[in-house]
Here is the input.
Amino acid sequence: MSTLDKLTQIDEVSVNGKSSRLPGFYKLDISERLEKLDDFFKLSTKEKWMLKKETLTAELADVMIENAVGVFGLPIGLAVNFKLNNKDYIIPMVVEESSVVAAASNAARLIRENGALTSESTDPIMISQIQIVDSPDPEAGKKRILEKKEDLLRLANKQDPVLVDLGGGAQDLDVRLLETESGTMIIVHLYVDTRDAMGANVVNTMAETLGPIIAEIADGDVICQIVSNYADKRMVKVKFVLDNVDCLARAGYSGEEAADRIIKAYHFADADPHRAATHNKGVMNGIDGVLIATGNDWRAVEAGVHAYAARDGRYRSVSKYYRDEKGKFVGELEIPMAVGIVGGVTNLHPGVKILLKVMNVETSMELAQVVATAGLIQNFAAIWTLATEGIQKGHMTLHARNVAIFAGAFGELAIKVANQMAHEGRVRYDRAKQILKPLLIKHREEEEQRKKREKK
Ligand code: NAD
Here is the structure.
């Protein structure tokens, strides 16, 4: 049975009774968007105030890190129109780059109207590594460690009874011998189901408990006892299939031509590391913002995704685009995704607590699938644009406002300057200054006249 056929048999799940398809959401102002969000999630007045003004206090920042001097702001945007496995999602993104949220929302709309998005994931298995050096007989040491496997797993699980009660915990371990410049090392991998936690702290604790004991068994020394961020036992796969390619028509290219150009652009990324780095950066554009919004460790996910991209010895694209056996256009992304909805700062950061409510996921596996979806859709939006009208037109229209503000424009003036630059196709600092100069003079004159009128 095809993915689409399967999906038509699954009941639709909306966001608390409503569709995430929100036409014209971008035209609202911030207060109106917050009211819309309130329709979905019943936010308190304080929560809405916090999203608008302050999601983290300096006092809390002082608890979170050392030598804190304050709190740094970034925009919180909502990517709308997402429907994954027939469930609607509004995806919060904390990101400074213009065009990311708009591109994700537009591509999500295109896919929900012309096809379907599905995803699946493995169990949330993290790997912890224990490095044993200077064993006089590594082969014999390996054998002795494996003989003690059940005892070692039991000891690991004693470190986290809460996790074990929740159905997680250490499940297995394996041992391999690694040839290095410092001689043969014994490397133990401990496999731990961390349930709804990202799990780095959990598995580090287990590794540090087992490390000295394993060293004794192998008659060696233990050095590193730490999580591997190459979480290739914690994988997520997202896929979309379009009913037909007509919807891809753009910038004078037919749907067929656009599909062909997208696939060729992907083949370039898969064959060339210079292109693959930028292609995968497009994937991470969608992912990192969601990770920050949900209090997840984006460095950990970045490290895992890039390690996976280089898994066969050459750095390549993590997403794929192709036509299936029926000629349907398919986009796919498969990556490691170590994320949590408990632990870390998820229970500490007030903004994260609100945005996790908006994310509306029940497990870390569901969050992993939504995060990867944002990555695939963002990458698709970028490659579709790149293969048709080129990246600068849309991007620079949005970026024009930043350039205008950088040149000294504000309020309505910034919008005027940005529109003028976008219209001319010249989004540049020097041009912004030129356009701004007469507008600023006029603005000051009007202000003076207004003040004079008020005095009278
Ligand atoms: P944690 O230790 O704060 O929370 C996990 C604990 O929560 C578990 O041990 C369990 O006892 C409890 N728990 C309660 N309900 C649970 C549920 N439903 N599922 C699972 N556990 C549940 O956090 P963590 O996830 O172990 O660690 C994440 C943090 O570790 C991140 O902030 C990350 O930045 C940091 N970190 C990362 C690295 C790395 O990636 N290399 C290294 C060290 C620390």
Remarks:
- The longest helix spans residues 429-455.
